[in-house]
Amino acid sequence: MARLTEEVGEMAREVNHYHGEKPKKLSERENTIEDEMGDIIFVLACFANSLNIDLSESFHIAMHKIETRDKNRWTPKD
Hints:
single chain; mainly alpha; Helix Hairpins; 3 helices
């Protein structure tokens, strides 16, 4: 859990650099939001494996919930 939290924090930092008010320092290494998302997916997959959780099934359950219970919470794109 700590590793996942760390990776999400790193992604938040990148989002802030690109879309927020805090530009990157010249001494900071170049990362991208895509890199950080990949790290999050990897850590999440490892976490799921350690708990014997099928991520595909978890994703399908979440999508079903979004498409039914939460369907009016989102603005559809044209």
